[in-house]
Amino acid sequence: MELATTLIGQTVRNAVREVGINPNYWYAVAWAKDLKPQEILPITIWEQPIALFRDSKNQVQAVENVCPHKGVAMDKGKVQGDAIACGYHGWEFNGNGECISIPYWNSDQKLPCARMRSYPVQEKYGILWIFPGDPALAERESIPEMPEYDNPDWLMVPITARFEAHFSICNENTMDVFHGYLHQNLQGWFDPVLLKLQETENSVTAAYNVSYKGAITKFLGLSEDGGLTTKTISISYRYPNYASALEGVSSLYLMRLPIGKTKSRSFALFFLKVRVPKWLLNSLRPLLQPAILHLLFMRFLNQDIEMIESEQKHYLKNPERRYVEVNPAIIAVQRLIVRQYEQYLRQQSESVKPLQEATRQ
User: Fold this and answer.
1) Which of 123, 218, 328, 343 lies 20 to 30 Å (CA to CA) from residue 357?
2) What is the pLDDT of residue 161?
3) In this structure, what is the dihedral angle of CA atoms 178, 184, 189, 193, given to the nearest 10 degrees?
4) pTM reported for the whole predicted model
């Protein structure tokens, strides 16, 4: 559905700062390189503690990070072959969450019915992805496609960040091209114009015209002399992840990890078209990646984090206060976040009804 791009004052629905997630999507939870063999990596998706480990075939397994025996965190234990062992009593569980061994158990006896939840998991694009919802729905959803990932013409820069804020605030920042004002001292973009806005059941897509000048235009290859340049940036929020592109220059894939009501994390892959011969680009990659990350991205990102966390802080002080938004793209993102959560709650309610009816019978 096409939406109007006119800037007009609208009251923010504070409910968006309280909603949970729709877990029936794939969520990026960690860099694959951070999960070493024989190690257990604890992560959290919307207050669900999960333990990741690699089995003997180096395949990633994901189970609930709570031992069903005593409630101890499984990441306090160790990996033993294809199993994860609790550090308290040594109970072992396979990747399906089934108890397969107890050190002091009589081999003639049947093991007790002790099981932890397991999760569908994938390793792709150097990222670990988990489906925290109904496992039966995992095959219906897909991980975002990133065609630049294996293309040698693009320079890839991995970026991560942590936010002391609700994921809705973080997501609005990503869609909000109008906050270029914040980055004036970094010669960021300016004079943004919302050109196009579309909304579907699970996505919001916007196109903005933005202007650049100065050193950043030369760095990005937008102009040779640093003069004024206007480009179109497209941003797509396909719940729960983002993809954006600056025409002919760069692409960004940003995956949001909602950890809790006031904690979020992001995993992003930035692709830059560097106009140098491939042989030279290959030799420059080890130097360009950290340079772009620390000299360009992190400077912008740190400014964003400061504002995002300030917004969260003041919301918590006075959650009844109403704020005004003028960018219809932000309002559309808020609608989408609330709609997805309400959709999940309806699905949960519908799945519980047959059980309740069967119980009454």
Assistant:
1) 343
2) 97
3) 30
4) 0.92
